[in-house]
Amino acid sequence: MTVDSSRPLAGARIIEISSFVAVPLAGMTLAQLGAEVIRVDPVGGAADYHRWPVTDAGDSIYWAGLNKGKRSAAVDVRSEQGQQLIQRLIVDAGVLITNVAGRQWHSYETLTALRDDLIHVEVSGRADGGTGVDYTVNAGIGFPLVTGPADLDVPVNHVLPAWDVACGLYVALAVIAALRHRDATGAGQRVSIPLENVALATAGNLSFLTEVMVNGTPRQRIGNSIFGQYGQQFSSSDGAAFMIVALTGRHFRDLTELTGTTKAVAALGDSLGADFGDEGQRYRHRDALTGLFTVWFSSHTADEVSAALSSTSILWERYRTFADVVTDAKVTDNPLFTPLDQPRIGEYLAPGLPLAIDGAYPSAVAAPALGDHTVDVLRSAGVPDDEIGALFDAGTVA
């Protein structure tokens, strides 16, 4: 038998009951790895079915983006008949991922009475069972109060839902680990992933929390600088913005040579008693160093800055808008992106799985419309056609 190395989860079937980011991202990732992922939504769609951005016709670009490669079944989740039908689908698949927490009819206890080797992965807002979304969890962790300019005195939310993304990848990892565990032992698993704990773990692992516990000093706002290293935003003479990062001694030496400040930096170090071979000293005196480097950047055009930086070891990038990025070679000439004809949305370059497996990126597969696969999904779970017809007549499925 030939095994497709780009689809290591082929043969696994997963039921997804979800909305918004974390679990839809997990389901899409598992589908991109070869699993058959069936998203079960209420008739008419879940809360994210029309989420912005939308097309002029009102179709959700967002929903299509996070549900690529899945199958879709639409079921009346409020009716007892619909709930029992979804239970049949879950029992047949053997894996459920969901962020619709607290529903007894698809709880671990209820479902394991029907299949004892079930893998049940549930995302909640908070560890105590309370509700929470990325933006409220983030507000309570501390990041908005260290984001933004140093002199700002109000919180700044990050536009990227980082905790949702991290949580979704944890969900996918949990499913893969549980499948391996079941293959080895025959036993299922119950996995609970509070979104808030994903954020807390990350803040702890990256030392934002530990710094306070050990040193008693909370992180402060530093604008576009990089904590503990030398990194800063600079502007060219024609107004383009660049992010410059010097992580190593070599990076820093190249930066001083490029800007013609080697002697000035040495003199500054002597006057301050600072050793700029040490990253902590470079960070501590970052404002004085930035003042020296700014002269060079502000006297050169963006093209000149880019050309000069390209010949050095310095880590850098020009700030770009999303509109700039979609026409850049990093998208147009990147094998991660392939043309996708997405029904209702149009044709565009869509990213597949961002893992090159044996040198190739699994390509994106179009997202379904709501209920596209209801009949096929029911048949594959052993529901006879006459019962399927009755379910449609009753409005239990769509």
The profile of the biggest β sheet is: 6 strands, parallel
CATH homologous superfamily identity of the largest domain: Crotonobetainyl-coa:carnitine coa-transferase, domain 1
| Straight-line distance between termini | 37 Å
Q: Spans of 5+ residues with little confidence (pLDDT < 50)?
A: none
What fold name goes in the CATH topology slot of the largest domain? Rossmann fold
Summed up:
This protein has 398 residues and is an alpha/beta fold.
Present the secondary structure layout.
Layout: E1 13-17, H1 22-32, E2 36-42, H2 61-66, E3 71-75, H3 80-93, E4 95-98, H4 108-112, E5 119-124, H5 134-141, H6 162-185, E6 189-194, H7 195-205, H8 208-215, E7 230-235, E8 241-246, H9 249-258, H10 262-272, H11 279-284, H12 286-298, H13 302-310, E9 315-318, H14 322-325, H15 329-332, E10 337-342, E11 346-351, H16 374-380, H17 385-394
Parallel strand pairs: 1-2, 1-4, 2-3, 4-5, 5-6
Antiparallel strand pairs: 7-8, 8-9, 10-11
Helix pairs in contact: 1-6, 5-7, 6-7
Describe this structure in words.
With 398 residues, this protein is an alpha/beta fold. The protein has two domains: 13-204 and 333-394, Rossmann fold (3-Layer(aba) Sandwich), CATH 3.40.50; 230-318, formyl-coa transferase, domain 3 (2-Layer Sandwich). The protein has 17 helices and eleven strands. The protein has helices at 22-32, 61-66, 80-93, 108-112, 134-141, 162-185, 195-205, 208-215, 249-258, 262-272, 279-284, 286-298, 302-310, 322-325, 329-332, 374-380, 385-394, and strands at residues 13-17, 36-42, 71-75, 95-98, 119-124, 189-194, 230-235, 241-246, 315-318, 337-342, 346-351. The strands form three sheets. Strands 3-2-1-4-5-6 form a six-stranded parallel β-sheet, with helices on both faces. Helix 1 packs across helix 6, helix 5 (134-141) packs parallel to helix 7 (195-205) and helix 6 (162-185) crosses helix 7. The longest helix is centred in the middle third of the chain and has 24 residues, at 162-185. The model has no long low-confidence stretch (mean pLDDT 97). Pfam families: CoA_transf_3 (PF02515). This is CoA transferase. GO terms for molecular function: transferase activity. InterPro entries: CoA-transferase_III (IPR050509), CoA-Trfase_fam_III (IPR003673), CoA-Trfase_III_dom3_sf (IPR044855), CoA-Trfase_III_dom_1_sf (IPR023606). Keywords: Transferase.
